[in-house]
Q: What sequence folds into this?
């Protein structure tokens, strides 16, 4: 069964953010978070965005959810 690699996905989200010049605090503000802590957890691979936040994040970064997620397949 394929699984999402949270660490690699976090690094990929961060890479996309850097390419667009978007900061963690910008994303937190746009999503209405009172703290940037949840977004830091995403980019550090400690947690995943909810589906609705993932959709919003992909839109902010002008990409698709598929391009943000790193999926590993069993050998």
A:
């Amino acid at each position: 069964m394929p699984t999402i690699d949270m660490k690699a996905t976090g690094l990929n989200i961060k890479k996309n953010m850097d390419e667009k010049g978007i900061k963690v605090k910008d994303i937190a503000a746009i999503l209405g978070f009172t703290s940037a802590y949840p977004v830091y957890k995403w980019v550090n691979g400690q947690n995943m965005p909810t589906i609705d936040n993932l959709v919003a994040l992909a839109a902010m970064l002008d990409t698709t959810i598929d391009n943000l997620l790193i999926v590993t397949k069993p050998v």
